[in-house]
Structure formats: structure tokens, C-alpha cells
Amino acid sequence: MENRVIGRFAPTPSGRMHLGNVLCALLAWLSARSSGGKIVLRLEDLDTHRCPPGAAGQLEDDLLWLGLPWDEGGSLGGPHGPYFQSQCTSYYEEALHTLQRQGLLYPCFCTRAELHAADAPHLSDGRVLYSGKCRHLSAEEIAEKANVHPPAIRLRVPDGRIAFLDRCQGLYTQDLAREFGDFLVRRSDGVFAYQLAVVVDDARMGVTEVVRGRDLLSSTPAQLYLMRMLHLPAPRYAHIPLLLAPDGRRLSKRDGDLSLEALRARFRSPEPILGLLAYLCGLQEKPKPKSAQALLEGFSWEKVRREDIRADFPRLLKKL
Ligand code: GLU
What is the pTM of this model? Predict the structure, then answer.
């Protein structure tokens, strides 16, 4: 058995990368490469209508421009393909059957309006806690409702807390039933849910460490629970700070001037951008331009700050 660190980039190819995606890719790359490991590129294109043709190729081009080459996956291919989630349905079906056999799944017929009812408790990540309405439907009720509308499939979570040690955020614990609730593994339109797909693919690709945004921290206990039920090994996790605008809003694809398209038009090389990000997340004392390769030296998770990074990014970039 290969006893090597395997990290991954797992972007959704829904448009050009922005600064937040760059920080995530940089830290995933530094973490794997600094321990002699390799990086897998997996394209999370489950929601095919959100992923325009050409976006995955553009993403690869941007990663190469940034100096963040990967070892396996994407158009490079490799032994653990397919690397596009839209082509992995048979693996998700198999996992679904394994969960089904354990009696962990139930069909859910709730409409959007029912799920978002005014009295539904809201969770810290903005989602609503599922009420459990469809947990106890009888076989007759299920057959009757399924005649009208195909159901989504939900996983029943147990009582009790799940804890893990995050390399960036420290100890995180969650009461799965009260703070996350029964969650979807397949939508009513047949598309598999992110929670299931990510767990199946990380294991299938031998991923040993996951680096991703802090927004996904609260999903991790549910994913750990899925791994346990599917008898899959758990990777190590690092949930990194998010980049926020001065008003606390999360940077997104809407901030066009922070997209790779705009950044590549403005900067001849990636060093000023990577140097600024390394400075903001605690890896260097000054925003000195640096390549990813040069940042490998001295990389350590201990240096990476855990709090989100709130800044006027367009202004900071103008000063470079
Ligand atoms: N595909 C997700 C995204 O683009 C990342 C999921 C993950 O890293 O687990 O935000």
C-alpha cells in the first residue's frame, strides 16, 4: 500500500476561479507538496447545468498559470478515474445501496416551501434543519406520494456528537441531529448530493487530506458519519479562512475584478497574487511576491490563521 499524502483540488467548474479559490488551491498544493505528496484534480460538475462547456479546461489553464500543477485527474487522467463527478454515477449508486441495506435512507417528498417554512429552525450556515416530516411515512403513503412526484432521498442521522481535529480550526464537535439534521443524498431530480459524492470520490481517489473553505466545516461531521457507514477511511481536514469584503460579505464570482480573468489581464505573473494571499493567511510577514514553489519552504499549518480574512481586496491588489 502506498503510504503517501494525497491532497486534492475539487473545484466546481461553474466559471472562472476567483481569489478565494486561489487561496484554497494554493494551501491544498502547499500542504500536499510540502510533505512529499501529490495532488488530484477532481471536477465537481454534478450540477451539469451550472457548469458551462469549456469551464473545466479554463480552470486547468488557470491552475497551470498560477504554478499549481497537479499529478492526476482532470484532462491528465490517471488510475482513479473518472475525475469528473458527472461521470461517476455508478459509484454513487453503489454507495446508496450500501446505505439503503442498513436502513439509513428514506424518501422525502417535502417541497421547497415546506422545507423553508417560517417556523423551520435556521442553522449557523444558513441552511434550515429538516423537520423529519417524511421520516415515518408508511409504505402506502410512500407509494401514493411517489405516484405524484419522485422523491428525494434523505439519510437518517443518529443522536450523539461527532468530533474531529481540524488542522486549521482546531477541535470541532457537532450534535449531528440538532445542528445538521437528516440530509439529502440524492435530489428528487436524480442528481446525487454533494455530501455523498465527495465522500465516495475522496475515498476512491485515495485522498488522505482535504483542504477547503471554512464554510464546509459544518458539513464535515455528516461526511464523517457517511464514511463510517460506508466503511471508508477518513482523510485529515483543514478548513481554511474565507476571504470577505469589508462589509463581511463572502467574495464570490460576482466580484468580477477578482476573477482570474481580470487578474491575469493585470498581472504578468502569479507571484504578486500568491505573495499577497500568503501574507494575508499568515505564511509570510510581508506581501512579498512569491511563487508557489518558493512558498513551499517554511510552509506549516501552524502559521495559517484560522479567522476569516476581511479586506478591501481590489484596493490591496492595486497597491501591488
Ligand atoms: N466543489 C466544492 C467547491 O467548489 C468544494 C468541495 C470540497 O472541497 O469538499 O466549493
Answer: 0.96
